[in-house]
């Protein structure tokens, strides 16, 4: 090896950059199949496909910090070089919503109003990668731009429910929970919290509701709380009376929507924005109920706090309710696979005009993992039938055979490695997950027959069978050449 | 408007970066459908999907100029920032072959040998954009890595032929032409050209064969040639005798493969590499013929020179032979939609070991354009049925209707704009390409009926019909509410 000496062109490392990965075979096709089913539902709801460019100007993405000469961390960005030297900054999109806002602002005169669109594709984040956390991943969004009607929000929830069932999450295994930022705003009003900083503190606190519970939130809204680790967390400094509406809000879920709505009305007190939020939730519940989406599929749940800081109206979250074992072997609910809500100011950045919008983003990898958990995907993938090469000079014969098999609709390939060692050919077939191998040596050729090995049965016999059974259940068959395809079909049907 | 005063955050321009574009609706779904058909063929041939990361290290891409501290022009690249400051350079992939080489080198112990893989997705080029030339576009590749067998080359050609027919290019409208770089190497040997620079000059010259013809190539190989523009192009400086084998090579195509092969054998004279190349072409032709791919689909054609500079063995090019009108209204053949060949040194960069590989790349946009030319795609796309909103308080009724229609498998949506002006609702339906609109006002609700407007028929009548015909062929129907879905099905079937 002269590697060390070869100074001119040291060998590059064959590695993906840190935080990136490759996807092979079924990983690609299963994702594509799932996305295709979701696209079918989106399409049936009147949503139109949009594929925006992966590259945007940093200005359009809105991630440019005005006082810094570089785009901020979260994005992959670079400076264009043009004829005069340095040009503007470009960046890879970090989600599908920011590009939608740009597209809508750019093409709004040609698009229908409202504009229902769906988008699927990779997005990139310039973040520290971690286990299972990649810097390129798929998103799958649907949004309605240009209408303030809560019917659009209800439609998104119904569509999300249909999507989950379409890809194979059975009814009862998921729940779409709906909350409303306006109700929280009403609660803040009822509390007398008008300072933006204090409102943000309250938001951060209720975000911890899942973890610390009602008592913990009370402490954090008041004087503070001793952490499990022993650290003291400062509180927001509200009085107990002031904290009451937030607690009422978070714990307002009742046995049915009517009960929940009554509790929420009480929580927002006299706040107009709060009442508007409760009205919206009531309308959404009514619209969904009329279409048959009962509380077992979509329900009002004011304890959904994720996204409340970002969205401006209704907020949705889809949770899978079946249990899995976590990395420590403890049972827990599978959890969230999609989220969304109403956001009304994204297009305004470009046009100055506020454009109402609402939408959903499905976590593609999370949903795929869920389908794997449920055994819907990820089973043994059947490989192609392998036509072995016994006689190097008769490649034309073997290619004709493989062509015949394929023309019958059966996935098949010819062995293209070195054919000298027949054992290697069978090892290859094994690695490919082949259901059957076809063999035609000189002897078979002369007698007008082929041998077909049932590789699945063969493997089962090799593992489990007694000698008697082995003899009784042959896994290799000799058939006339003209019956090759028919016999293969029979074997594959038997394996199915 | 306070735009000018708002210095803190000037409005960003809603524009794609130069050279990038967005794809809408049918542009996205037609491409996806075409790629899905091609993936089906690739899969049937035993090829496995691979989706490598869009981002690679610049070293792995092999576009790093060792003496320059920046990656070279053709790629979009940026420098990683890590904890210690500047890190390595990353870049967007510029094709799907360079990533394949990296993936194969990285995962070769886990992959079958040979490894058949296909890949589809966007690639990026940092080039000056032009009309119809974008800096992000799709490629769709299939490659076999790890076998030197010409059976792999023949298989790629057969598969390409199947792909073209599968997506809708009829037999007779395409031709896959096969040549071999080794034959050209033999020709260069026969000419006595061993200097690499001179060989490159010869390659550049034969690349002009299409444009300047046999006489032009003779001049350019010799003393030079007066250009159409009046400029004098220096020649390679070969003698007439030396030029003879190249001319024989370029014009060796005969009425059948046997004739072509005989001409090629004469052209390469006593060259061993040349004879090897001719043998390979003979084997490829034989293997394809045995499977029924006749010369009307795949033929040997030594005048294919595109790619001869890059590939190391067999070279393939798929041309569409039907005529179209170019931008100046002149008839010309549609031309190339795919190309490929054998390249044996890509993996060596990483591992030091030479790994034989062969493959094809389909020009996705070109093939889509061809299907559009042939009327296979791009017709009027039918939009969703639109359920109009006559009474804002009865949204639940309308959403129930739209839900019923969708559950019958019909694409449908509710109008979500401001319902005040009914004319706007019909304008919206028109913009959406809706086949029908459903109307249920208070009167209809009371009588238990709905109105259904056949919008396609309505448009035809409005354009062409006399008043008599108008009366005879109603385009609006009143049906009982319970028959809404059935009537819609009837109307859509009639439009089909």
TrEMBL record, chains A, B:
<dbReference type="Pfam" id="PF13393">
    <property type="entry name" value="tRNA-synt_His"/>
</dbReference>
<keyword id="KW-0067">ATP-binding</keyword>
<dbReference type="InterPro" id="IPR004154">
    <property type="entry name" value="Anticodon-bd"/>
</dbReference>
<dbReference type="InterPro" id="IPR004516">
    <property type="entry name" value="HisRS/HisZ"/>
</dbReference>
<dbReference type="InterPro" id="IPR006195">
    <property type="entry name" value="aa-tRNA-synth_II"/>
</dbReference>
<dbReference type="InterPro" id="IPR045864">
    <property type="entry name" value="aa-tRNA-synth_II/BPL/LPL"/>
</dbReference>
<comment type="subunit">
    <text>Homodimer.</text>
</comment>
<dbReference type="GO" id="GO:0005524">
    <property type="term" value="F:ATP binding"/>
</dbReference>
<dbReference type="Pfam" id="PF03129">
    <property type="entry name" value="HGTP_anticodon"/>
</dbReference>
<dbReference type="InterPro" id="IPR041715">
    <property type="entry name" value="HisRS-like_core"/>
</dbReference>
<feature type="binding site">
    <location>
        <position position="139"/>
    </location>
    <ligand>
        <name>L-histidine</name>
    </ligand>
</feature>
<feature type="binding site">
    <location>
        <position position="306"/>
    </location>
    <ligand>
        <name>L-histidine</name>
    </ligand>
</feature>
<keyword id="KW-0436">Ligase</keyword>
<keyword id="KW-0963">Cytoplasm</keyword>
<keyword id="KW-0648">Protein biosynthesis</keyword>
<feature type="binding site">
    <location>
        <begin position="310"/>
        <end position="311"/>
    </location>
    <ligand>
        <name>L-histidine</name>
    </ligand>
</feature>
<dbReference type="InterPro" id="IPR036621">
    <property type="entry name" value="Anticodon-bd_dom_sf"/>
</dbReference>
<keyword id="KW-0030">Aminoacyl-tRNA synthetase</keyword>
<feature type="binding site">
    <location>
        <position position="125"/>
    </location>
    <ligand>
        <name>L-histidine</name>
    </ligand>
</feature>
<protein>
    <recommendedName>
        <fullName>Histidine--tRNA ligase</fullName>
        <ecNumber>6.1.1.21</ecNumber>
    </recommendedName>
</protein>
<dbReference type="GO" id="GO:0004821">
    <property type="term" value="F:histidine-tRNA ligase activity"/>
</dbReference>
<keyword id="KW-0547">Nucleotide-binding</keyword>
<feature type="domain" description="Aminoacyl-transfer RNA synthetases class-II family profile">
    <location>
        <begin position="44"/>
        <end position="384"/>
    </location>
</feature>
<dbReference type="GO" id="GO:0006427">
    <property type="term" value="P:histidyl-tRNA aminoacylation"/>
</dbReference>
<feature type="binding site">
    <location>
        <position position="143"/>
    </location>
    <ligand>
        <name>L-histidine</name>
    </ligand>
</feature>
<dbReference type="InterPro" id="IPR015807">
    <property type="entry name" value="His-tRNA-ligase"/>
</dbReference>
<feature type="binding site">
    <location>
        <begin position="95"/>
        <end position="97"/>
    </location>
    <ligand>
        <name>L-histidine</name>
    </ligand>
</feature>
<comment type="similarity">
    <text>Belongs to the class-II aminoacyl-tRNA synthetase family.</text>
</comment>
<dbReference type="GO" id="GO:0005737">
    <property type="term" value="C:cytoplasm"/>
</dbReference>
<dbReference type="InterPro" id="IPR033656">
    <property type="entry name" value="HisRS_anticodon"/>
</dbReference>
């Amino acid at each position: 090896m002269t590697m060390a000496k070869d100074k001119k062109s040291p060998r590059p490392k064959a590695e993906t950059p840190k935080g990136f990965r490759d996807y092979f075979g079924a990983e690609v096709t299963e994702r594509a199949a799932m996305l295709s089913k979701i696209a079918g539902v989106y399409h049936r709801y009147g949503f139109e496909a949009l594929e925006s460019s992966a590259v945007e100007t940093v200005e359009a993405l809105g991630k440019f910090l005005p006082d810094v000469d570089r785009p901020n961390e979260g994005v992959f960005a670079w400076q264009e070089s043009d004829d005069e030297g340095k040009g503007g900054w470009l960046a890879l999109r970090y989600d599908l919503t920011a590009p939608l806002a740009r597209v809508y602002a750019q093409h709004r005169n040609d698009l229908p109003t409202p504009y229902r669109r769906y988008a699927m594709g990779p997005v990139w984040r310039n973040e520290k990668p971690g286990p299972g956390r990649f810097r390129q991943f798929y998103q799958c969004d649907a949004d309605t731009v240009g209408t303030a009607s809560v019917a659009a929000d209800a439609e998104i929830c119904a569509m999300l429910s249909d999507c989950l069932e379409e890809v194979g999450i059975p009814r009862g295994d998921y729940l779409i929970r709906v909350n409303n930022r306006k109700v929280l705003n009403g609660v803040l009003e009822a509390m007398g919290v008008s300072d933006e900083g204090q409102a943000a503190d309250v938001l951060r606190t209720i975000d911890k509701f899942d973890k610390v519970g009602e008592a913990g939130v009370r402490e954090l809204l008041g004087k503070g709380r001793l952490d499990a680790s022993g650290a003291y967390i400062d509180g927001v400094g509200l009085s107990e009376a002031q904290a009451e509406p937030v607690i009422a809000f978070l714990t307002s879920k009742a046995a049915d929507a009517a009960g929940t709505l009554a509790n929420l009305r009480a929580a927002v007190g006299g706040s107009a924005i709060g009442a508007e939020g409760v009205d919206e939730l009531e309308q959404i519940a009514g619209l969904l109920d009329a279409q048959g989406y009962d509380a077992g599929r979509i329900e009002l749940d004011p304890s959904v706090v994720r996204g409340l800081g970002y969205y401006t109206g209704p907020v949705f979250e889809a949770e899978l309710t079946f249990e899995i074992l976590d990395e420590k072997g403890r049972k827990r609910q599978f959890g969230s696979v999609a989220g969304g809500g109403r956001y009304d100011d994204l297009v305004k950045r470009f046009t100055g005009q506020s454009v109402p919008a609402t939408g959903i983003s499905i976590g593609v990898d999370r949903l795929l993992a869920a389908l794997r958990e449920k055994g819907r995907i990820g089973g043994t993938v059947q490989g192609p039938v392998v036509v072995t090469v016994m006689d190097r000079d008769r490649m034309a014969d073997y290619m004709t055979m493989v062509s015949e098999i394929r023309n019958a609709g059966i996935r098949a390939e010819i062995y293209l490695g070195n054919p000298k060692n027949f054992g290697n050919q069978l090892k290859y077939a094994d690695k490919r997950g082949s259901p059957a191998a076809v063999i035609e040596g000189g002897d078979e050729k002369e007698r007008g027959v082929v041998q077909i090995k049932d590789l699945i049965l063969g493997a089962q016999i090799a593992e489990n069978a007694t000698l008697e059974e082995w003899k009784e259940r042959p896994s290799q068959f000799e058939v006339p050449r003209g019956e090759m395809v028919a016999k293969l079909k029979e074997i594959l049907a038997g394996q199915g």
